[in-house]
Specification:
Layout (H helix, E strand, L loop, with lengths): L1 H18 L4 E8 L4 E7 L6 E13 L3 E2 L5 E6 L5 E7 L4 E12 L4
Antiparallel strand pairs: 1-2, 1-4, 2-3, 3-7, 5-6, 6-7
């Protein structure tokens, strides 16, 4: 059931995430209180961005800032055996696993 929910969320946001391919990205914030990693993809216009919040991050690997991003989100099996998500940018060597995620456009930072 969890896999179906995450697959549905990925399907709903996939087109939005792909629109931002080729833009600059950064690991913006890692919070312990809400256990979230915020990744911000910046557009060419001031104030335009894509915020991907990796909720309950388990594993983080890669550069903290990179150009020409090609982020993709998929379901994966976490080290606990639970279903979670894999945020991956193969071209830039970025890999994050987490329990869930949220995606929002044009967030004021």
């Amino acid at each position: 059931m969890r896999k179906e929910f995450l697959d549905s969320q990925i399907s709903k946001t996939q087109k939005m995430v792909r629109r931002w391919h080729g833009c600059d990205a950064a690991m913006h914030d890692l919070t312990s209180s809400h256990q979230a990693l915020a990744i911000v993809v910046s557009g060419k216009e001031y104030g335009k961005n894509l915020l991907i919040a990796c909720l309950g991050p388990e594993y983080i690997c890669g550069r903290t800032r990179w150009t020409n991003s090609h982020i993709d989100i998929k379901t994966t099996t976490l080290s606990t055996g639970d279903t979670g998500i894999l945020l991956i940018d193969l071209e830039n060597g970025v890999r994050v696993t987490s329990e869930s995620f949220e995606v929002k456009e044009n967030v004021k930072l």
